[in-house]
């Protein structure tokens, strides 16, 4: 090909509305209905045609249309209102500035393989991306010093078509970057900033772009430049495509390329947040850069760890990438050399003994100072899942805590409902999200809430019908089949939505295990029910695609036709319609596979009622009156039994509780139902939102990690070096540590309030007694283990012989069937012992 220069030719914006372009390039618009209205009003058809993408819209709109609105007083008034909001947003005092003024320079870098900000920018596949997008929006709202780092996929995630046979067809759109609301980052010479990386046998160049999200930036990396070979240009082609070689190269681009790009731009993050294992290679790159500055590998590793935090997102094994030794060698041999270590040392950072490979999740867990799962249940499941990698720790001590996911309220809240909330709760309800404000939902008259819900339901029905019609026309279906869509769904009929990725553990077809019972439910003469399904299956997931076909086929059977609908191409736009307009949101994951799930939180925000298995976030939220629970909180050994019981429970809950409640009317109004809507809103919204979530990350993770990182870096990395030396010493000498004698007044029977005393002699060899802690551990004896453990650190009494030390202490026993023992572990004011899980439990005594 011959070289050429790129130019985008757009109509010149009339002076009175010249700031539209600024707005088009700031995703702030995506959570302000007024801002969207400002574009849409200019030319509604074109807005739809442009895929709700303001940048593309401004490229396509005609000068005449712009000049027309620029003369329209109503439009100009609207324009002024939006920019007043916008300017105020950018200048007002923020939560972060108020709470952490001394940390305003401590930038948090948030690395994620996907970001779901808006339907016009499809670089997300599902929940992980949506969460990252909402996280960024709240980080902006709360005023955090924050940057995102991700990849700019040329083809995004696929667009789904369902053909006349019910088969999913994946269509990859070609994103024209000129038409996206993104801008190049320029280098000092005014060229597009390009970062160079080494891959085996060649260099690869990546372009850096930026996306504005209110007060923050997200930097996106793009390999599609003529400087790269054809195959390398495709490395940022699609999300989660390709084989292992492709995946690792993509993850190197994100992790290694991301670090390089930030440094090139002069961004020096103080906290590094790895959002899911894909980005964990940033750890290796940072170690490499510190070694280049003269630190030893071990010290560099401690310094990196002190400022790195990690969020794990799934208990599904396929969600954790594992690369073979050969693959790592192929890509990282030069890096190991630069770091001055053998390849083995690199492999040890993340070696997975079970799966015999280099595990990205372990790389992150082993080299972060704080780690979390995304709901309380998921935290617990993760602790259990990774127990084997923390030799010696009790399951309750595994250092993976939980910060439960939320949603960005303004993004997901229907405008009509928002206005109602504003009227009765005040505008601050979406900003300061405490429970006191949301208590005022009770002040909304039942009739008004129901009327707005019904209005949104009618909109959802319109949306569903036109989506289905479009699909049928494209598939050349008979005109009868196309026209009958206008009769589908009704605002008077209970409508249940189910839309999510078609991963098998989500069990979209749970109800269809008993088609006879479902037929009766749907076709009940007085209390009919309608179902709307939607969702994509990963192109490599055949089981998921079969599920789509199964539901498609059933939806065409006589008893289900027009009553069970399957819509194609679930995305943010469709999610918004469904989550604002159906009555009930159904969620049926096989416990405990759903890490959190967030769509049900969006549903609750819009007054929908959740019916869900007790998985992910739901056990935390469900209080018996704010929705419906399916199944129990017990763990099953057998999936078939679990599916059978959950299916039965789902039917019973629908038949006996949910459906009757919905149809019970007083003067045409389902009072009891509306009461539940309000209760659901006020108990769920103030907790399950990203403002609470990002504040929690800030308080518990970002600020402590910023302090720790600074401590480790100060005085020329003095503390980093000290910790690295101490850990090395403990590792080398731990074998010598031995229990010599344990004395206790403990007896098989003791009385409430009695004191348990222990005296322990331990041979510490060459170790200093200050670098260990000896503990009395006590807990409820359950089966063969201890639960709810308590730990008391024993006092050091004296050295009684060469290297042998005496410790003693006591504990007042609580009531119950208890077990106790003693143990010794590393102790240091500079790092938590869980980072070096060398624990020696006393042999039987
Ligand atoms: C919110 C959302 C998700 C994630 O929600 P789940 O409950 O995990 O399904 C996925 N896709 C879209 C489009 C969403 O809006």
From TrEMBL:
<dbReference type="Pfam" id="PF11897">
    <property type="entry name" value="DUF3417"/>
</dbReference>
<dbReference type="InterPro" id="IPR000811">
    <property type="entry name" value="Glyco_trans_35"/>
</dbReference>
<dbReference type="Pfam" id="PF00343">
    <property type="entry name" value="Phosphorylase"/>
</dbReference>
<keyword id="KW-0808">Transferase</keyword>
<dbReference type="GO" id="GO:0008184">
    <property type="term" value="F:glycogen phosphorylase activity"/>
</dbReference>
<dbReference type="InterPro" id="IPR052182">
    <property type="entry name" value="Glycogen/Maltodextrin_Phosph"/>
</dbReference>
<keyword id="KW-0663">Pyridoxal phosphate</keyword>
<protein>
    <submittedName>
        <fullName>Maltodextrin phosphorylase</fullName>
        <ecNumber>2.4.1.1</ecNumber>
    </submittedName>
</protein>
<feature type="modified residue" description="N6-(pyridoxal phosphate)lysine">
    <location>
        <position position="602"/>
    </location>
</feature>
<dbReference type="InterPro" id="IPR024517">
    <property type="entry name" value="Glycogen_phosphorylase_DUF3417"/>
</dbReference>
<dbReference type="InterPro" id="IPR011834">
    <property type="entry name" value="Agluc_phsphrylas"/>
</dbReference>
<dbReference type="GO" id="GO:0005975">
    <property type="term" value="P:carbohydrate metabolic process"/>
</dbReference>
<dbReference type="GO" id="GO:0030170">
    <property type="term" value="F:pyridoxal phosphate binding"/>
</dbReference>
<keyword id="KW-0328">Glycosyltransferase</keyword>
<feature type="domain" description="DUF3417">
    <location>
        <begin position="13"/>
        <end position="120"/>
    </location>
</feature>
<comment type="similarity">
    <text>Belongs to the glycogen phosphorylase family.</text>
</comment>
<keyword id="KW-0021">Allosteric enzyme</keyword>
């Amino acid at each position: 090909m011959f070289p050429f220069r790129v130019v985008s030719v757009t109509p010149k914006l009339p002076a009175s509305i010249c700031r539209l372009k600024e707005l088009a390039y700031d995703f702030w618009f995506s959570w302000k209905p007024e801002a969207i209205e400002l574009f849409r009003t200019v030319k509604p058809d074109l807005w739809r045609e442009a895929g709700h993408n303001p940048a593309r819209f401004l490229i396509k709109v005609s000068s005449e249309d712009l000049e027309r609105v620029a003369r329209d007083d109503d439009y100009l008034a609207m324009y002024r209102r939006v920019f007043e909001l916008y300017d105020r947003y950018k200048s007002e005092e923020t939560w972060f500035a108020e709470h952490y003024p001394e940390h305003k320079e401590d930038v948090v870098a948030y690395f994620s393989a996907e970001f779901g900000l808006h339907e016009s920018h499809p670089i997300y596949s599902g929940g992980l991306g949506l969460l990252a997008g909402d996280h960024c929006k709240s980080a902006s709202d709360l005023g955090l010093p924050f940057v995102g780092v991700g990849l700019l996929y040329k083809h995004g995630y696929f667009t789904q078509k369902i053909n006349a046979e019910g088969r999913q067809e994946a269509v990859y759109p070609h994103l024209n970057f000129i038409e996206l609301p993104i801008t190049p980052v320029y280098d000092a010479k005014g060229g597009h900033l390009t970062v160079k990386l080494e891959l085996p046998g060649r260099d690869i160049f990546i372009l850096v772009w930026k996306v504005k999200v209110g007060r923050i930036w997200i930097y996106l990396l793009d390999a599609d430049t003529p400087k790269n070979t054809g195959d390398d240009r495709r490395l940022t082609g699609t999300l989660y495509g390709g084989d292992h070689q492709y995946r690792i190269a993509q993850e190197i681009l994100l992790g290694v390329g991301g670090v390089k790009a930030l440094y090139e731009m002069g961004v020096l993050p103080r906290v590094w947040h790895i959002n899911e294992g894909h980005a964990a290679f940033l750890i290796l790159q940072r170690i490499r850069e510190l070694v280049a500055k003269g630190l030893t590998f071990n010290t560099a590793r401690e310094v990196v760890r002190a400022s790195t935090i990690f969020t794990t997102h799934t208990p599904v094994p396929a969600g954790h990438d594992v690369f073979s030794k050969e693959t790592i060698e192929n890509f990282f041999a030069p890096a190991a050399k630069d770091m001055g270590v053998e390849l083995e040392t690199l492999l040890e950072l993340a070696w997975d003994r079970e799966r015999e490979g280099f595990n990205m999740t372990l790389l992150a867990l082993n080299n972060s100072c704080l780690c979390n799962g995304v709901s309380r249940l998921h935290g617990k499941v993760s602790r259990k899942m990774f127990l084997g990698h923390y030799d010696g720790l009790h399951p309750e001590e595994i250092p993976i805590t939980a910060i439960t996911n939320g949603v960005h309220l303004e993004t997901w809240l229907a405008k009509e409902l928002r206005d109602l909330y504003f009227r009765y709760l005040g505008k601050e309800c979406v900003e300061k999200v405490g429970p006191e404000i949301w208590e005022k939902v009770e002040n909304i008259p039942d009739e008004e809430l129901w009327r707005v819900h019904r209005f949104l339901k009618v909109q959802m029905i319109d949306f569903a019908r036109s989506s289905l019609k479009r699909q049928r026309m494209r598939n050349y279906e008979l005109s009868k089949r196309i026209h009958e869509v206008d009769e589908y769904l009704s605002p008077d009929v209970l409508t249940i939505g189910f839309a999510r990725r078609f991963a098998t553990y989500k069990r979209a077809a749970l109800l269809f295990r008993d088609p006879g019972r479902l037929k009766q439910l749907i076709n009940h003469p007085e209390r009919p029910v309608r179902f709307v399904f939607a969702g994509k299956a990963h192109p490599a997931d055949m089981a998921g695609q079969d599920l789509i076909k199964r539901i498609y086929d059933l939806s065409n059977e006589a008893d289900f036709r027009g009553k069970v609908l399957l819509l194609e191409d679930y995305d943010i736009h469709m999610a918004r319609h469904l989550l604002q307009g159906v009555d009930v949101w159904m969620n049926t994951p096989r416990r405990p596979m759903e890490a959190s799930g967030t769509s049900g939180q969006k549903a609750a925000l819009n007054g929908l009622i959740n019916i869900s298995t007790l998985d992910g976030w739901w056990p935390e939220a469900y209080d018996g009156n704010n929705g419906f629970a399916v199944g129990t909180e017990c763990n099953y050994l057998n999936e078939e039994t679990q599916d059978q019981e959950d299916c039965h429970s789902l039917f019973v809950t629908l038949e006996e509780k949910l459906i009757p409640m919905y149809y019970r009317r007083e003067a045409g109004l389902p009072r009891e139902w509306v009461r539940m809507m309000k209760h659901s809103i006020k108990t769920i919204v103030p907790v399950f939102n990203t403002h609470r979530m990002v504040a929690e990350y800030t308080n518990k993770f970002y600020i402590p990690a910023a302090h720790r990182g600074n401590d480790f870096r100060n005085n020329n990395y003095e503390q980093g070096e000290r910790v690295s030396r101490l850990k090395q010493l403990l590792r080398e000498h731990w074998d010598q540590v031995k229990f010599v004698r344990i004395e206790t007044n403990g007896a098989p029977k003791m009385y409430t309030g009695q004191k348990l005393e222990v005296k322990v002699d331990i041979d510490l060899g060459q170790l200093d007694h200050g670098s260990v802690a000896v503990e009395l551990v006590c807990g409820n004896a359950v089966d063969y283990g201890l639960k709810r453990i308590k730990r008391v650190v024993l006092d050091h009494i004296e050295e009684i012989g060469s290297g042998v030390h005496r410790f003693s202490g006591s504990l007042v026993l609580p009531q119950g069937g208890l077990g106790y023992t003693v143990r010794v572990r590393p102790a240091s004011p500079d790092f938590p012992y869980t980072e070096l899980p060398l624990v020696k439990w006393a042999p039987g005594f």
